[in-house]
Design goal:
CATH superfamily of the largest domain: P-loop containing nucleotide triphosphate hydrolases
Number of strands: 16
Radius of gyration: 33 Å
Order of helices and strands: HHHHEEHEEEHHEHEEEEEHEEHEHEHEH
Bound molecules: guanosine-5'-triphosphate, magnesium ion
CATH topology of the largest domain: Rossmann fold
Number of helices: 13
Distance between the termini: 33 Å
Helix content: 10-25%
Shape: elongated
Number of domains: 3
Structural class: alpha/beta
Strand content: 15-25%
Strand order of the largest sheet: 12-13-11-14-15-16
Length: about 550
């Protein structure tokens, strides 16, 4: 046996799985670990009756294929947020005993509801939004008589998982266009316009007249100059167009996406010296619509990368309360699972003490378990590389390697090759394809009231797309990583693990290149840990290891 030094966890854990690696602690381990006893019974010839283990499927770590919870998941969607329209102004007159024809007293319409967005920790998927497509804030209520203003429309809040990227595709904001138009007109030499011409235009989309008015009366009526288009003061808080947000932190307060439109003006606004009882009010403004592409790149602390069937989902189950699907076939997992590893359940001393950057004590961390990678995944084999976007932003990567499935070193190299392929594709085809497919920005040039640019949400013309800025994130190869050798309970996995450990030692010392063959890749503290996820052995060191690597 090569003389391997027992590392920090080698001393405490390896003996459970590989007793030969640490002979010193054998006696104490034999008492606790049936696995160890089984190993030694074969070597010493003593009779050991393995304890009666519960039926395999009783364990939540080795569940039947149908024992899983399928949480609906979507990592991208297109939604349209529509701010509430304003309520209409009211045409009303005071009527009291002895005052038959009282003055105008119509209230103004209420302003529309706002649309807010907030990234919150509890959310893990965009599926709820993907189903909705249109998210509409409430319309303001109409004004009423006795100068009562309309109620404000109800606000809506879009909650998204932390790690969501929001990119605007299309916008329709009639009022902003009107303001821009007015601004342009002011710059031009004023046109000769008679007062009559200016004042007498009736626009059905702008004016509201006294109910019961006959057309002939309407024709005779003179309308005042339309009030200038107005925007809510809140509109100043909207992000600049085009919206491009990376919501990578939990937000305590929501962010305003689209402010509600202003309500219409009641008839007292149109009182003139020669027209004391105006029979018109203005309609509420139309709420702006913004169509956005949301993309979730899960912000987990630990991302699991492995070949299909390596045991990633079993490991996730062992560390968390997740009920990820486990099966003895490739591609059991078809969508990412996010699990929360509880470090402190507030029932005594925390399992692992770790503070966040802001000094707050960590109570948990997130694991992202994604579908397996296969060789040439970058050529779109298997499930491709797209879901690596969910480990791309993980702080630490864990390469999960099945020790019973052949050369562990070769498997690790293969995984790194695919991961670095993903990284190099990242700046090129993947983004270009995504951009081509999903993203276009054309500020609302269609302002006619007849044509609704939002009738069809598909990007209008694929050739006219202007790519948006790409996300900049730390490169995957510079992230700290560790190797988790699973299925160490199976026979004849020890030599494989030892070879892996030797290889990692060489990578660390520089005798071997980094498995991704990239320079400046992180390798100085790389470690491996043998575990049996199905028995839950060895997994308890992983939280501590990950927390240590988070500081890197
Ligand atoms: N003996 C043993 N079997 C294990 C261990 N971990 C997982 N398995 C088995 O390996 C098989 C695959 O496990 P999964 O957790 O579904 O593997 P996965 O990597 O998530 O697979 P995909 O989702 O297809 O990529 C299952 O039959 C598990 O019971 C282990 O530590 N020891
Ligand atoms: Mg799986």
């Amino acid at each position: 046996m090569p003389s391997l030094r027992c590392s920090f966890f080698g001393g405490t854990l390896t003996p459970f799985l590989y007793p030969a690696l640490c002979a010193s602690s054998r006696a104490s381990i034999a008492r606790r670990c049936p696995l160890h006893a089984r190993y030694s019974s074969t070597t010493t010839g003593s009779t050991y009756d393995p304890p009666v283990l519960p039926a395999a499927h009783d364990s939540h770590l080795d569940p039947t294929p149908d024992n899983y919870s399928l949480t609906p998941f979507a990592d991208r969607c297109i939604v349209t947020a529509e701010a509430g329209s304003g309520g209409h102004g009211c045409v009303s007159f005071l009527r009291e005993k002895y005052i038959e024809e009282g003055p105008a007293n119509g209230g103004d319409g209420g302003s529309g509801g706002n649309v807010y967005i907030q990234a919150v920790r509890g959310e893990t998927s965009l599926h709820k939004l993907a189903r909705r497509r249109l998210i509409k804030a409430g319309r303001g209520r109409n004004g009423q008589g006795k100068l009562r203003g309309g109620e404000r429309g109800e606000d809506v809040l879009i909650t998204v998982p932390v790690g969501t990227i929001v990119r605007e595709i299309l916008r329709h904001d009639a009022i902003a266009d009107e303001i821009a138009e007015q601004w342009r007109n002011e710059r031009q030499p004023p046109k000769e316009q008679t007062e009559e011409e200016e004042a007498s235009s009736y626009r059905k989309d702008k004016w509201l007249v006294f109910p019961g008015m006959v057309p002939s009366e309407l024709n005779r009526m003179t309308f005042p100059v339309l009030p200038a288009p107005r925007k809510s003061h809140l509109a100043a808080l909207q992000p600049q167009a085009p919206i491009w947000l990376d919501l990578d932190k939990h937000m305590e307060t929501p962010l305003l996406l689209a402010a509600g439109a202003m309500g219409g003006l009641g008839n007292p606004h149109f009182v003139l010296p020669n027209q004391s009882r105006p029979k018109m009010a203005t309609r509420g403004d139309e709420g702006m619509k913004v169509s956005m592409q949301l993309e979730l790149k899960i912000l987990a602390d630990l991302g699991l990368v492995g070949l299909p069937n390596a045991g990633k989902s079993t490991l996730t189950r062992a560390l968390t309360n997740s009920r990820a699907r486990v099966g003895s076939w490739a591609f059991t997992t078809l969508q990412p699972n996010v699990g929360t590893v509880v470090l402190d359940n507030h029932k005594g001393r925390p399992a692992v003490m770790k503070r966040r950057r802001d000094g707050e004590l960590r109570e948990n961390f997130l694991i992202a378990d994604v579908p397996g990678l296969i060789e040439d995944a970058h050529l779109d084999k298997g499930l491709g590389l797209g879901f690596l976007r969910h480990v791309e932003r993980a702080a630490v990567l864990a390469f999960v390697i099945d020790l019973s499935a052949g050369d562990a070193v070769a498997a690790l190299k293969l995984l790194w090759r695919e991961v670095s392929e993903y990284e190099s594709l990242q700046g090129k085809e993947l983004n270009a394809a995504t951009e081509r497919r999903m993203v276009t920005y054309s500020p609302g040039k269609i302002t006619s009231n007849q044509g609704d640019p939002f009738g069809d949400l598909d990007p209008p013309d694929l050739n006219s797309l202007k790519p948006l800025p790409f996300l900049t994130s730390t490169s995957i190869t510079s992230k700290p990583w560790l190797v988790v050798g699973t299925k160490a309970d199976l026979p004849e996995t020890q030599a494989n693990y030892e070879a892996l450990q030797r290889y990692l030692g060489e990578v660390k010392s520089g005798a071997q290149p980094h498995p991704s063959n990239r320079k400046n890749a992180w390798k100085h503290k790389v470690q491996s840990v043998p575990i049996s996820a199905i028995k839950g052995e060895g997994v308890e060191v992983i939280p501590q290891l990950v927390m240590d690597l988070l500081d890197e």
